[in-house]
Specification:
alpha/beta, Aspartate Aminotransferase, domain 2, four-stranded antiparallel beta sheet, 13 strands
């Protein structure tokens, strides 16, 4: 059975060009970048080249890029590292109710340590209110952390406006851009972004490697003890091969930006048009305009996301549900709850995310399969 993959927001396959770039650092150029001899210097040179590739992609300085193991670590390092280093200036953080758990759980941990956190509401499309953001700022506010684009419903937040508000109030602005990299053009200087998290496996690099941008001059502490790697901000021997892969992947995705994103948007719009024609009473979640090009999040009236996933999998289709459930304790997605969906509708939700290797034939197969599954329920 042919596998048709529609879960690129969860992870992406590693590109052949990326694998080719990585291979020497598993064998020939295996040196530890902290050593002084040739093999180590060569590995260090490769890391610095990847640092330049990431910096070019988001218009930062090379020395403002720090490599991590993933987006979650980048979020933890940005938020904890900054507030620990600056707690004498204030202990109030502003975030939103629809952040990834890497941000939400980090904030919950900080609350237990005496920090205050404001969780902004979102409207029915997933947008924060800029007015509520402004009204939440007080003399103790030191950090605003708002995701660039939501991983479930694809809504792109008003990042530029948030950056202006943060700068005007002398507050550091962090954004989790894990879903946005490759799907949105990002200029950290133009957008007044002070810290930005990203993860390689969302744009055809390997799992297990990420990066954090921190604007020069911003003080933050390392949160992992050990060596002095990454300018003494992230202890641990560098994952050279995967760092090289991340650098190559981010370079490729932005070199192909227009073609890649036009393709995703075409697929998304085609899918929405045809699936709504065939299946009635579908609710599309998230904004239809300010949205990631390859994201579709839809709720059905009488079939659960779990059942849908099971039946899609039987037909060789990989997708994801809009609810994070376990057998023992089913809980609707915090994102879908925040935008006002009742628990039943939230549990009847499917997320489809397209990628560079999908074809129109794949999408027609997905539409036909969904229609057959849904027809049997009626």
């Amino acid at each position: 059975m042919k596998i048709r993959y529609f879960d690129h927001a969860a992870t992406t396959p590693v590109r052949d060009e990326v694998i080719k770039e990585m291979i020497p650092y598993f064998g020939i150029d295996f040196g530890n970048p902290s050593t002084m001899y040739y093999l180590g210097r060569n590995a260090k040179k490769a890391i610095n080249n990847a640092r330049k590739q990431v910096a070019r992609a988001i218009n930062s300085k090379t020395r403002e890029i720090y490599f991590t193991s993933c987006g979650s670590e980048s979020d933890n390092l940005a938020i904890k590292g900054f507030v620990y280093a600056n707690k004498d200036k204030g202990k109030h953080i502003i975030t939103s109710k629809i952040e990834h758990h890497a941000v939400l759980d980090t904030c919950k941990t900080l609350e237990k340590q005496g920090f205050k956190v404001t969780y902004l509401n979102v409207d029915e499309n997933g947008f924060i209110s800029l007015e509520e953001l402004i009204n939440s700022i007080n003399k103790d506010t030191i950090l605003i952390s708002i995701m660039f684009a939501n991983n479930e419903i694809g809504t792109i937040e008003p990042i530029k406006e948030i950056g202006v508000i943060a700068k005007k109030n002398n507050i550091v602005f962090h954004t989790d851009a894990v879903q946005a990299i490759g799907n949105v053009k990002i200029d950290v200087q133009e957008l007044n972004i002070d810290m930005l998290s990203l993860s390689g496996h969302k744009f055809y690099a390997p799992k297990g490697v990420g990066a954090l941008y921190v604007k020069q001059g911003i003080n933050f502490e390392k949160i992992q003890d050990g060596g002095e790697q990454e300018e003494n901000k992230r202890a641990g021997t560098e994952n050279v091969a995967e760092i090289v892969g991340l650098g190559k992947a981010i370079e490729l995705i932005y070199n192909e930006y227009d073609e890649y994103n036009d393709k995703l948007k075409t697929f998304r719009d085609y899918f929405l048009e045809h699936v709504q024609n065939k299946i009635k009473n579908i609710k599309v979640n998230g904004d239809l305009e300010k949205r990631l090009p390859g994201n579709v999040n839809i709720s059905f009236d009488n079939i659960s996301g779990g059942e849908l996933l099971y039946k899609l999998d039987e037909n060789g289709i990989c997708a994801s549900a809009g609810s994070a459930c376990s057998t023992a304790n089913p809980m609707p997605s915090h994102v879908l709850t925040a935008i006002g969906l009742d628990s039943k509708l939230a549990e009847n939700t499917l997320r489809i995310t397209f990628g560079k290797d999908n074809t129109l034939d794949d999408i027609n197969y997905l539409i036909d399969t969904l229609n057959k599954i849904k027809s049997k329920k009626m």
